From TrEMBL:
Keywords linked to the UniProt accession: Membrane, Transmembrane, Transmembrane helix
Superkingdom of origin organism: Bacteria
GO MF entry, a single one: transmembrane transporter activity
Gene3D superfamilies associated with the record: 1.10.1760.20
Keyword hit for Membrane: yes
Keyword Transmembrane: yes
Transmembrane residue ranges: 20-38, 62-83, 90-112, 132-149
Pfam families registered for this protein in UniProt: ECF_trnsprt (PF12822)
Name of the molecule in the record: Integral membrane protein
């Protein structure tokens, strides 16, 4: 689990694209943690990763508890949807929809609103297109990674 937490921390700091549309890959590590360890351990792992990121790899924004709540909810969603479940496109799509809508669009926009005092709807509108695009690539990449893992000798960690 520690390796996957470290992977999530590193991947969260790298993204490609412009300020308007940045493509990140930390969702792969989060999905793997949920797939291997289930909702409870994944929620704890995501909280640990979020707090450790602020200590080891601080960002200019500093620590805000709301993003830790988002991380915990992410671990729960990935764990409930992927742990001990057959990897299918539909399951990964539903998982990604839940993540994009609940965590990325609704919760994280609320946290940004609370930090910046910019009206919620003003923040939400540009994020909708970004999250719609991320839904497509996250579903595809996560499905390919999980399908490969499920068909390999690494399908379970003992």
């Amino acid at each position: 689990m520690a390796i996957l937490i470290a992977l999530e921390m590193v991947l969260s700091r790298f993204s490609i694209g412009s300020n308007a549309l940045q493509v990140g890959f930390s969702f792969v590590a989060m999905g793997l943690i949920g797939y291997y360890f289930g909702p409870y351990k994944a929620a704890i792992a995501m909280a640990i990763a979020d707090i450790m990121k602020m200590v080891i790899l601080p960002s200019s924004g500093g620590f805000f508890w709301g993003f830790t709540v988002s991380a915990i909810v992410s671990g729960i969603i990935y764990g409930v949807m992927l742990y001990n479940k057959k990897v299918t496109v539909v399951r990964v799509l539903i998982t990604t929809i839940l993540m994009v809508v609940i965590v990325n669009t609704l919760m994280n926009t609320l946290w940004i609103h609370m930090i910046s005092n910019v009206p919620y709807l003003v923040l939400l509108m540009p994020r909708l297109l970004k999250e719609a695009i991320s839904l497509v690539y996250q579903t595809g990449i996560l499905y390919l990674v999980l399908k490969w893992i499920s068909n390999s000798r690494f399908n379970r960690i003992n």
